[in-house]
Fold this protein.
Amino acid sequence: MKALIVLLLCCVLPSCYGQTATGKLVVTMSNVKKAGMVHVGIFKPGKKFPDSQLQVTSQAVSCKETCTIVFDQLPFGEYAIAIFQDENGNGDLDTGMLGIPSEPFAFSNDFKPMFGGPDFTDCSFNFEREGQSVSIRMINSLFGGN
């Protein structure tokens, strides 16, 4: 009997060893004024947030008013989210003078930049449980309105 238990443990434990725990992260965006594609990127810690080299995963969804994107099997850890709505369909966040976004955007923690872009720490959160939700309000203009 002991030999059978030892044999089972030897078969089961190696398959569990080294695996990173993952879960489902639910991201809900609100205040989406116009219908269009909303791009959501999830980023790992780094000095150049939001830089594509730090992006862990991303998704895009057609949205108006409120929408939800689910990221399955995301490893638990520290992340930040950057979102933009591609109103003209060119696949990029367009900016005007001084690099100020001319399309709606948002960050986790509802961070609203005042002078320059955000640091990772401004937008970071700990993803630590299955089904965790993050709600983010889109910024349609930095100069009044919402």
Remarks:
- The first strand starts at residue 22 and ends at 43.
- The chain has a mean pLDDT of 85.
- DSSP finds two helices and six strands in the chain.
- The two ends are 68 Å apart (CA to CA).
